[in-house]
Amino acid sequence: MIRFYNARILTMADGCEITEGELWTDGDVISYIGETPAELPAFEREINAGGNLLMPSFKNAHTHSAMTFLRSFAEDVPLQKWLFEKVFPYEDRLTAEDVYAFDRLAILEYLASGTTAFFDMYFYPDSTVQAAIESGIRAVLCGSINGTVKDVERLNDQFQKFRHIHPRIGYRLGFHAEYTSDEGLHRGVAELAHAEKEPVYTHISETEREHLECIERHGASPAQYFESIGLWEYGGGGFHGVWFDGNDRAVFRRNDLWMVSCPASNAKLASGIAPLKEAYEEGVQLALGTDGPASNNALDPFREMYLGAVLQKLRHNDAAAIPANVMLQAATVGGARAMGLHDCDILAPGKQADLILIDLHAPNLQPIYHIPESLVLNGCTGNIRMTMCAGTILYENGEYFIGASPEEIIADTEKRISRLTG
Amino acid sequence: MIRFYNARILTMADGCEITEGELWTDGDVISYIGETPAELPAFEREINAGGNLLMPSFKNAHTHSAMTFLRSFAEDVPLQKWLFEKVFPYEDRLTAEDVYAFDRLAILEYLASGTTAFFDMYFYPDSTVQAAIESGIRAVLCGSINGTVKDVERLNDQFQKFRHIHPRIGYRLGFHAEYTSDEGLHRGVAELAHAEKEPVYTHISETEREHLECIERHGASPAQYFESIGLWEYGGGGFHGVWFDGNDRAVFRRNDLWMVSCPASNAKLASGIAPLKEAYEEGVQLALGTDGPASNNALDPFREMYLGAVLQKLRHNDAAAIPANVMLQAATVGGARAMGLHDCDILAPGKQADLILIDLHAPNLQPIYHIPESLVLNGCTGNIRMTMCAGTILYENGEYFIGASPEEIIADTEKRISRLTG
After folding, report:
1. ipTM of the complex
2. Which among B72, B105, B270 has the least Cβ separation from residue A363?
């Protein structure tokens, strides 16, 4: 049992109310939240939070973690040139061991940024599973975009292989996107989803071109086309949604789908600004993701929350466009629920102890008026003091407790990068 | 003498080339940059940079530092309501001692973010001067926006009082904005600038409304109107320039003026996205500022560089819109020159030792392909290991060396805030 006392606590159970008190963990779950009782049990460790903030950890609801290896490899080039000349040829050379190494690099950054779960789509899922299990973080794999899963049978094989492989690993059905697969595959995934009563996830309406080409092909936008073939009978969601119109958002609302926005990637790749204000006001469920680190370039939940808020102000020419709190909700509770981690969403007894401690005494978070808004508009990864996943502290005051040192992990990536890009 | 060895060095003397070697300081200046010589002099301290990056510190070329006291006080409210109900009434209550306290809070954040100089416009300049001198940071005061400087005579009094008060303090002529003063004042400032052969600075074309109203009043945009009355005979610059058109940028180019962009503030207040790509391509000199912390909400040069780059991609619907390097230049060399700190711009022997050490081994800066681009697109304040101003280390590995502890400074602001907003 670990005890945090003298803490401010933002449970997110009930909006953004903050209480003062203590929180205990027992094994991988939260066992108590409240005032200091008259009698205390024995603890393995007691941590004086010093008035700092305990809150649910961040959940990265869309990423391609191993793309760390191409971060800053080529900047400021047009999207098509970047993809075809600077990404695809190098991804072709990747081995399973490379993906493991580059995932570990991403995990260092996730933990230092307060992220304890990531929803990952990439090659070599075994490598991602291994990296996550070893480090102590949580990963949910999403369908696949790679060459080995070309048909629904193999998607099902992967699903069956990974769905119950480890308590910290999940698997959700999905495929890359409408424009990179055909109707046969889409209908096949829908059938599998019906058979398994499972949600389905995909990239959707990220660029205007892809959105319009789908309308040409299917006479309907991706969201409307997918709904028409029954893809989302058991829910799921879509990544990006930059070009959603009111009808697309209505599809998402009535099917309880998650709109996973990646504002930094959409900015860097000049895809556009997603209609988050409208989605929020219409009741669409929101989560946030970083997308891959090559198109971001960070794996930083603070960046996503901040952009999620301020880009709406620019889009709508209105400083009051969307409450900052909405982004805090999307980056934590929303993300967890979007990827099916319903026991990792809020802080409450019985929930998984996936939580962070934030240094409210850092100059950039002073003074303290409205902590949730402050986290969104002036918080930064440097404010993370501790990151706990499933009751285990994986990062604390700059130190990692993940079974390997940052130096080892970085040295391993350097060697591989020389080979891949040399 | 302090020696940094085993460093990567980005002098910014010649674009963004990086060399490996060492850098020495002697008193407040840089005394050597190069390879390790056969014989070494005696040093007070020798710092192994461990392959990390030494570079010029950031310069915040537009801010109202003491507005830390209103950060996160009121979020997501429309601009006019925010200003008239949530800012002005509280600013009216400020004392000189309050400004000193709130400046000290800002200085903590500046130093932790690698900023060693700020170009400040606010009430009670004596307080800002005191806070800067005591802490060891550099401040340049800019004209005034407050009630005590209503005429040119008093502006001149301030100018004469502060211009040579201390080696780390500067003063530049300026006034708040076209729309908050009249033609008499503008012409008076122009005369003073001519008499003193001094540059002049002002807020300019921050909002569309202000830009259009000036055209209505003067038959010319602010930039063109100010040029016509000879305000910029000896140079200077303007803060924001969000609504600049080609003619305004031409005024800036032909008068060698500094366009000081504040992208985060312009986003939060929904003022718009400044035409930085055009300005850059046309040869306008660029610097970056945070604006006040209440309208940002951070004092974070990484945020400004990042937004300066990616918002142009959104504005122009082009992932290649502006090279990231341009923003690194604007945040360091540009900022120094914009505020007249010509001996604090680059790293070179004889220049002021205003520099920072950046942890390139941080996971978010790995792998290392293009360091300057990486700093702009994935760097963060947590990557700052050391901040040196005028040869003195003021911040190192989370610790401050400024004559007061963060705890003291924060406790002082808390007391004052209770009084001001209670």
Report:
1. 0.97
2. B105
